[in-house]
């Protein structure tokens, strides 16, 4: 397959104007292929040659202006259109297209619960070619008119409102001009909940077997949808630009969600079958807001080329968190008590769940600017590599800093100018910055050069000195970006209470970084704690002065604001990763302060890092048992503190982590046998599979128990759970079977592949699987070539031997990166994984 080069796209955009696609899809042709017939009306702006993309199972016929062309001329995914004359043309293409099992193109899924089948499209970034013929680049926008033939009993959803005309035939309303990658179809016997809001039809949809779970949350999902919709209508001068708003929760989806205009697709794990925490519900709400923001930034106004992907994702990430907080602040949803803010501070969750993703990505060799140089994104394959923590979390952090510096009024004014100038068109970074600059007197171009065109993380280190009646703060700034930050100062509270000492806010003031060389001087004795970037409005690593750090170790949970605590937990996380703080000290801080923590996002973030990274990778095998014991003790303490039923979310977090950190099977085996944790919760499907996976890794269960559990839960999630458990069994036979399924069979869907990979590598089983470590690299490279980018992403993310942390493994990885045949998606994943391995070794060596 030929990837599209940037210069090819620019040439084609200057040569063509595409008016309309008329597409007919027939989904009744069988289980392997569907029929695709496309009529493209376009204008050649000069005489010349071009090409159209398609990846057919069979190209049956193709004609230009009524003249048949030879299907044999198809070269990979390109069909040449030669000797075009200036003027209007019609291209007709008739093909059989293959269904996908990897979440690319037209994905087909049969639900093992009820044997019902569903199909849906995922056409990003260049997979429209798997569904219909197209001039596949974002700046050749067009109107799309689709008809779909589906089996009787199915419902068809699309970008526009759908009308059933009988005998399984559906007509979708033509779209406004949109990019090829945004076309969407979802078909199957969906369970739907529909309503109307602001004069538009709204709907949420899922497969039939999830109907009770969607119905249980429908009010919450629709409340958030309506609230965010109304808030965006208030923020943006341009009204919602499409004719309906559907949200389909689809199976085996590769991303979190996709912003198809009028038909957003979500992974259907967001329809919760089992108990979840308030923070997880907040995450779902954020994703709803994120995708809705794309209706304007990404769909109405679209990037011209993929080097500007941050314009889509950073904006939606920022707006997702900000707008969710604004839209839901006065509302009370079912997940909280009436009168409470449903999501009190979404930015705490961003700080602990997303920002670390950006910091990590920005410190690897593969880092890149938020807005990379166009030369760094020469083709579509390289563009795919930039969907990472930099384009999402760092970019959103940069926008948050921009708003703090520019002011929200001017920021939104610039955004609205951008929408007005480029509605239903394409825009570049230069366009965006010019539009912002037109709304303010500040030098936005200089800001963009410093924030968007540079890579790496700045570090801000506080230096505090004290005189008789004053104290002074100087900030050591390692980096190149300007920062506008708040400094929070805290004193010990006078009153006493059980647990860690409580702190009270003395003052919060703004400073600019870099400073002019003169320390900031404040009256009074030095505070007990001085926090840079209080409020987390910038993107930088923070280091406290020694006295403040000593205060933190004893008083962290006594800091009154959760966002301040998030900044400090992120500081501790960075220090562990940089070898400046012993991993055991981090765990001890968690042991001391989490029992007194009130924010669930902080519980989840701290425990995830402690369990997955510290206990899983940063500590040696000899030190791991002690860490697991300490974490288990911490979680049992959290369970004891929730025995009155006051905090079921915290209790659920603690129960999950006790399962994950269990070193002996007896207690969690008893939970599985009894079907409940003493005092609750009852073990739902998610917890039962979690327990069984841990028992499998510990060698405390067998195939018969896994099969019996699968009989009780034959769902798609149950199939994944069973695959994960079987791969985790500590026997040579189980490992050989799992390896065969991943690297030889090629029949696993994307989700089943991931489940097997997650089960295969276990930190307790490094000796058992050591022989597979050198096999991984060549076999992963071959698999990526055979099965394509989606599986390459999975094999690099989940099948990597993450627990083989030694010099030999590092050498193998570094040698593998010299292989010039690695496809870009796998090369990037391996480069990141190997750098993480290098960091884990350095942390071990430092302590």
Task: Give me the secondary-structure topology.
Elements lengths: L5 H10 E11 L6 E12 L3 E6 L4 E7 L2 E3 L8 E7 L2 E12 L6 E6 L6 E6 L20 E7 L5 E4 L3 E5 L2 E4 L12 E4 L2 E7 L2 E7 L4 H25 L9 E6 L6 E2 L4 E5 L10 H17 L6 E3 L5 H20 L17 H17 L17 H4 L6 H17 L1 H15 L2 E3 L1 H9 L6 H8 L7 E8 L3 E9 L4 E10 L10 E11 L6 E4 L5 E4 L8 E3 L2 H10 L6 H16 L5 H11 L6 H19 L5 H17 L7 H14 L4 H9 L10 H13 L5 H10 L3 H13 L3 H14 L4 H11 L12 H15 L1 H9 L9 H10 L7 H23 L1
Parallel strand pairs: 1-10, 16-17, 17-19, 20-21, 22-28
Antiparallel strand pairs: 1-2, 2-7, 3-6, 4-5, 4-7, 8-9, 9-14, 10-13, 11-14, 12-13, 15-16, 18-19, 22-23, 23-26, 24-25, 24-27
Helix pairs in contact: 2-3, 2-4, 3-4, 4-7, 5-7, 5-12, 5-14, 7-8, 8-9, 13-14, 13-15, 14-15, 14-16, 15-16, 17-18, 18-20, 19-20, 20-21, 20-22, 21-22, 22-24, 23-24, 23-25, 24-26, 25-26
Protein model, in words:
With 847 residues, the chain is of the alpha+beta class. The protein is 42% helix and 21% strand. It contains 26 helices and 28 strands. It has an eight-stranded mixed sheet with strand order 5-4-7-2-1-10-13-12. The chain has a five-stranded mixed sheet with strand order 15-16-17-19-18, covered by helices on one side. The chain has a four-stranded antiparallel sheet with strand order 8-9-14-11, with no helix packed on it. Helix 18 (685-697) runs parallel beside helix 20. The two termini are 48 Å apart.
Largest sheet: 8 strands, mixed
Global morphology: globular
Alpha-carbon distance between the termini?
48 Å
Strand line-up across the major sheet:
5-4-7-2-1-10-13-12
Structural class: alpha+beta
**Discrete helix count:** 26
Gyration radius, in Å: 27 Å
Low-pLDDT windows of residues: 332-342
The proportion of residues in beta strands is: 15-25%
Overall mean pLDDT score? 96
The residue fraction in helices comes out at 40-55%
Number of strands: 28
């Amino acid at each position: 397959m030929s990837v599209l080069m940037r210069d090819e796209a620019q040439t084609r955009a200057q040569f063509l104007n595409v008016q309309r696609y008329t597409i007919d899809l027939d989904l009744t042709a069988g289980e392997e292929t569907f029929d695709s017939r496309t009529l493209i009306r376009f204008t050649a702006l000069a005489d010349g040659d071009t090409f159209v993309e398609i990846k057919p199972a069979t190209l049956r016929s193709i004609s230009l202006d009524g003249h048949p062309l030879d299907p044999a001329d198809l070269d990979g995914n390109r069909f040449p259109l030669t000797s075009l004359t200036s003027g209007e043309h019609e291209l007709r293409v008739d093909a059989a297209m293959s269904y996908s099992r990897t979440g690319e193109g037209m994905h087909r899924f049969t639900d093992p619960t009820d044997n019902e089948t569903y199909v849906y499209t995922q056409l990003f970034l260049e997979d429209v070619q798997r569904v219909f013929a197209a001039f596949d680049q974002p700046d050749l926008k067009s109107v799309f008119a689709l008809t779909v033939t589906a089996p009787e009993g199915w419902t068809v959803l699309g970008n526009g409102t759908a009308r059933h005309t009988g005998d399984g035939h559906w007509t979708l309303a033509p779209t406004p001009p949109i990019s090829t990658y945004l076309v969407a179809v979802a078909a199957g016997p969906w369970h739907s909940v529909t309503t109307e809001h602001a004069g538009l039809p709204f709907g949420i949809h899922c497969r039939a077997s999830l109907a009770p779970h969607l119905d249980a949350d429908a009010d919450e999902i629709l409340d958030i949808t309506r609230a965010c919709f109304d808030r965006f209508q208030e923020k943006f001068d341009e009204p919602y630009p499409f004719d309906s708003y559907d949200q389909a929760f689809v199976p085996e989806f590769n991303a979190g969600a996709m912003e198809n205009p009028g038909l957003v697709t979500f992974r259907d794990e967001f329809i919760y079958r089992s108990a979840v925490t308030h923070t997880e519900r907040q995450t779902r709400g954020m994703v709803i807001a994120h995708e809705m923001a794309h209706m304007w930034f990404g769909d109405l106004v679209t990037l011209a080329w993929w080097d500007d992907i941050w314009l889509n994702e950073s904006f939606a990430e920022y707006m997702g968190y900000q707008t969710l907080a604004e839209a839901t602040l006065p509302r009370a949803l079912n997940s909280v008590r009436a009168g409470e803010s449903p999501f009190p501070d979404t930015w705490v969750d961003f700080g602990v769940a997303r920002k670390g993703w950006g910091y990590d990505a920005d410190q690897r060799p593969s880092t890149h600017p938020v807005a990379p140089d166009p030369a760094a994104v020469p083709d579509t394959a390289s563009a795919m590599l930039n969907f990472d923590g930099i384009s999402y979390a760092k970019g959103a952090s940069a926008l948050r800093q921009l708003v703090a510096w520019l002011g929200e009024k001017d920021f939104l004014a610039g955004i609205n100018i951008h929408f007005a100038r480029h509605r239903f068109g394409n825009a570049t970074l230069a366009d965006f910055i010019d539009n912002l600059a037109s709304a303010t007197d500040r030098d936005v171009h200089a800001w963009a050069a410093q924030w968007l065109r540079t890579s790496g993380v700045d570090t801000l280190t506080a230096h505090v000195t004290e005189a008789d009646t004053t104290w002074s703060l100087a900030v050591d700034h390692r980096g190149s970006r300007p920062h506008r930050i708040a400094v929070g100062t805290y004193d010990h509270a006078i009153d006493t209470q059980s647990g860690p000492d409580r702190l009270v806010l003395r003052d919060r003031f703004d400073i600019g970084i870099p400073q002019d060389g003169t320390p900031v001087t404040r009256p009074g004795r030095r505070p007990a704690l001085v926090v840079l970037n209080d409020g987390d409005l910038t993107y930088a690593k923070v280091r406290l002065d020694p006295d403040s750090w000593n205060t933190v170790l004893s008083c962290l949970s006594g800091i009154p604001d959760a966002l301040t605590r998030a900044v400090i937990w992120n500081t501790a996380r960075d220090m562990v990763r940089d070898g400046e703080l012993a991993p055991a000290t981090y765990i001890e801080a968690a042991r001391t302060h989490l029992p007194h923590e009130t924010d669930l996002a902080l519980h989840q973030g701290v425990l995830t890092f402690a369990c997955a990274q510290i206990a899983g990778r940063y500590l040696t095998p000899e030190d791991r048992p002690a860490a697991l014991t300490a974490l288990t003790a911490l979680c049992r303490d959290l369970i004891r503190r929730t025995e009155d039923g006051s905090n079921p979310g915290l209790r659920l977090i603690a129960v999950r982590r006790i399962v994950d950190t269990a070193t002996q099977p007896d207690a969690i085996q008893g939970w599985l046998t009894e079907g409940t944790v003493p005092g609750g919760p009852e073990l739902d499907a998610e917890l039962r599979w979690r327990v069984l996976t841990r028992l499998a890794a510990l060698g405390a269960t067998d195939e018969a128990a896994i099969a019996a559990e699968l009989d009780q839960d034959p769902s798609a999630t149950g199939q994944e759970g069973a695959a994960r458990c079987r791969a985790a069994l500590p026997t040579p036979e189980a490992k050989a079977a799992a390896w065969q399924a991943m690297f030889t069979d090629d029949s696993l869907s994307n989700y089943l592949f991931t489940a097997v990979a997650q089960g295969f590598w276990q930190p307790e089983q490094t000796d058992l699987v050591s022989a597979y470590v050198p096999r991984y690299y060549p076999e992963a490279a071959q698999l990526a070539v055979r099965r394509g980018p989606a599986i390459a992403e999975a094999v690099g993310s989940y099948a990597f031997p993450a627990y083989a942390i030694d010099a030999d493994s590092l050498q193998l990885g570094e040698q593998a990166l010299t292989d010039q045949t690695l496809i870009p998606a796998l090369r990037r994943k391996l480069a990141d994984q190997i750098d993480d391995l290098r960091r884990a070794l350095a942390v071990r060596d430092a302590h």
